[in-house]
Amino acid sequence: MPTVTRLAPAKINTILRITGTRPNGYHDLEMVMVPLAFGDEISVTITPTEMTTITVTCTDPALECDETNLCYRAAAALLPLAPFPQAISIAINKHCPVGAGLGGGSSDAAAVLLALNTFWGLELSPDQLGEYAVKLGADVPFFCHGVPAVCEGIGEKITALTKFPKLSILLVNPGFHLATPTVYKAYDLQLTPQKSRGSCPQLFEGLQEVAATLENDLQGVAEELHPIIRSIREDLIQLGAVASQMSGSGPTVFGIFSSDADAKRAAEKIKQPGWKVFVTETLSCE
Q1: CA angle at residue 62 from 67 to 280, to 5 degrees?
Q2: Are 132 and 78 in contact (CB under 8 A)?
């Protein structure tokens, strides 16, 4: 019973721009997405059987493990390419908060696609896996690439960055779920005029350049819904972060620090009951 265990990295958005709205309600985006050394662990075990089955288990009892689970759906999406009938067992060791703006579920699904790609010797490229991934969720193709990238369209058009530094990151999650559709709806209700902006940078030399380009069009409306998000951002700056921003549609806020030691000191001071705080680093492409 061979098993593959992979990190399913969380992500942050250093840039999230809304560039338009499609007739189906989806939003056109331009983002810089960066994977982190922190995330869930996904273990996939294959056992030859007479009939193919998929089972999912998770350390978080609140997470549904039926056919609606993204990991289940990822395995089901690749099943037509399976070389023989088998029992596919997927175990999710959950560390990333659910509904946190960190892409946890999408990354888990990508980890399953990548594991089965290896198991079955499919040799599908990240772009080829992306054709299956985009049917699971807009962020899933990014995690199939696993490197800092500019993501456009609804998030499915991936261009790897030429350079992105390794950065010390402190993640602060205030302990509640913020549904992505809720935030986008609030953004749409504001009738925010689209800004004219240049293309996202393709190369980031260091911390200061990343900090100077932080941008998230959803941050303002999320902070109106939950002012604690703004408070966390401000507290992180007071505790020494070079810059701070909400990730994705929230509610998790990240601070960029000059060193891991600075991030760890801030983590000890900002902790609150019910909050989830993690010190990690970006996965660079230097």
Answers
A1: 105
A2: yes
pLDDT of residue 284: 76
Where are the domain boundaries for CATH 3.30.70.890 in the chain? 168-281
Residue 262 CA to residue 244 CA, distance in Å, equals 14
- Report pLDDT digits (tens) over 30-74: 999 999 999 999 999 999 999 999 999 999 998 999 999 999 999
pTM of the model: 0.94
Return the amino acid letter for 122. Answer: L
What would the mean pLDDT of 86-97 be, rounded to a whole number? Answer: 97
Which of 248, 279, 237, 273 is closest to 100 using CA atoms?
248
Q: Class for domain 3-160, per CATH?
A: alpha beta
Length of the chain, please? 286
User: CATH topology for 168-281?
Assistant: Alpha-Beta Plaits (3.30.70)
Tell me the two tokens of residue 155: 């998030």
List, by residue number, the catalytic residues: 11, 139
Given a contact cutoff of 8 angstroms between Cβ atoms, the answer to whether 184 and 249 are in contact is yes
pLDDT tens digits, residue range 193-214? 666 677 788 889 899 999 999 9
Contact 81, 128 (CB under 8 A): no
DSSP strands (E only) in 161-230: 168-173, 215-216
Give how far the C-alpha of residue 171 lies from the chain's centroid of Cα atoms, to the nearest Å.
13
Angle at CA of residue 70, ends 185 and 5, nearest 5°: 135
Paired sense of beta strands 86-93 and 27-48, if any: antiparallel
Strand ranges inside the chain, DSSP E = 3-21, 27-48, 53-58, 86-93, 149-153, 157-160, 168-173, 215-216, 243-246, 253-257, 276-281
Residues of the chain with CATH 3.30.230.10: 3-160
Return the percent helix, strand and coil in the chain, to nearest 5: 30, 30, 40
Give the pair of three-digit tokens for residue 163.
Answer: 């350079």
The amino acid present at 230, given as its one-letter code, is: R
